[in-house]
TrEMBL record:
This protein's name: Cysteine synthase
MF (Gene Ontology): cysteine synthase activity
Positions bearing N6-(pyridoxal phosphate)lysine: K45
Pfam families, per database record: PALP
Needed co-factor(s): pyridoxal 5'-phosphate
Positions of pyridoxal 5'-phosphate binding: N75, G178, T179, T180, G181, T182, S259
Classification via CDD domains: CBS_like
GO process terms (BP): cysteine biosynthetic process from serine
Source organism (scientific name): Spartinivicinus marinus
Cross-referenced PANTHER family: CYSTATHIONINE BETA-SYNTHASE
InterPro entries according to UniProt: Cys_synth, Cys_Synth/Cystath_Beta-Synth, CysM, P-phosphate_BS, TrpB-like_PALP, TrpB-like_PALP_sf
Catalytic activity: O-acetyl-L-serine + hydrogen sulfide = L-cysteine + acetate
EC number(s) reported in the record: 2.5.1.47
Biological pathway: Amino-acid biosynthesis; L-cysteine biosynthesis; L-cysteine from L-serine: step 2/2
């Protein structure tokens, strides 16, 4: 009998859910984190990256060797570069020039072409340039900010996994908000199972610059975002996110990025307000793509 060996694509999703052991202190709550850095390209964005390409193929919008274009702050770009390599597409990624060198190197390693905009132009400028290039016929913009395949990946994957892994006991779900795909799709699924599950979304406090999460100007708010799917929005400061990120590595052995630290900082705040709860936070990526920024050496 022939062995049906898996492909790299089949390893996206089904990530572990683990309990924090020390950061929570004495509590009646379970504070759990979902390790999305275990995906092949290292982040939660592997899920929507593959889903967006697969859906575009299913709809006949693209075929192998076509050019795909996307504005990204990092993780989606790495994931799309991997997915494009798997599927046989040319990938052009546009990102602000202040993103970490590790992220840029990872995208290039997968064969993507990188275009930079200034830090001042930011993600808004990157999105504008992507749309301009599409109008000029230079490729198809997948547009993670408006593409329904983004939350669909989490409705079909992340949400059901968390429900099964907690045996339906989840009471709170916490996720940083960037494109908002993770929180939209997961919220939809969890609320269908139990409307009482509380959905908490994180945005950076004024003045904070946390990779992957944003306070979007109204004109650039992702169109996939449905505010009614989020029960509470919490602001997280730069210091809160970075301190929690370093403590996760040093006290829990969980090596992750700044936005993941923010999600855990929020989870710990919620844990101080409730009892006998099952709180799940998303660890959206790994810490190795932030080493050059110096955040792990700060005190």
């Amino acid at each position: 009998m022939a062995v049906n060996y898996p492909t790299i694509e089949s390893l996206v999703g089904n990530t572990p859910l683990v309990r924090l052991q020390r950061l929570t202190g004495n509590t009646t709550n379970h504070v759990l984190v979902k390790l999305e850095g275990n995906n092949p390209a290292g982040s939660v964005k592997d899920r929507p990256a593959l889903m967006m390409i697969n859906e575009a193929e299913r709809l006949g919008a693209i075929k192998p060797s076509d050019t795909l274009i996307e504005a990204t702050s990092g993780n989606t770009g790495i994931a799309l570069a991997m997915a494009a390599a798997i599927k046989g597409y040319r990938m052009v990624l546009i990102m602000p020039d202040n993103m970490s060198e590790e992220r840029r190197s990872a995208m290039s390693a997968y064969g993507a072409e990188l275009i930079s905009v200034s830090q001042e132009q930011g993600m808004e400028g990157a999105r504008d340039l992507a749309e301009q290039m599409e109008r000029e016929g230079k490729g198809l913009v997948l547009n993670q900010f408006a593409n329904k395949a983004n939350p669909l990946a989490h409705y079909l994957g992340t949400g059901p996994e968390i429900w099964e892994q907690t045996q339906g006991e989840i009471t709170h779900f916490i996720s940083s908000m960037g494109t908002t795909g993770t929180i939209m799709g997961t919220s939809r699924y969890l609320k269908e199972q139990n409307p009482a599950v509380q959905i908490i979304g994180l945005q950076p406090a004024e003045g904070a610059s946390i990779p992957g999460i944003r306070r979007w100007p109204k004109a650039y708010l992702p169109t996939i975002f449905e505010p009614e799917r989020v029960d509470q929005v919490m602001d997280i400061t730069q210091q809160e996110a970075e301190v929690a990120m370093r403590r996760l590595a040093q006290e829990e052995g969980i090596f992750c990025g700044v936005s993941s630290g923010g999600a855990v900082a929020a989870a710990l705040k919620i844990a101080q307000q409730v009892e006998n709860a099952t709180i799940v936070a998303i660890i959206c990526d790994r810490g190795d793509r932030y080493l050059s920024t110096g955040v792990f050496s700060s005190k």
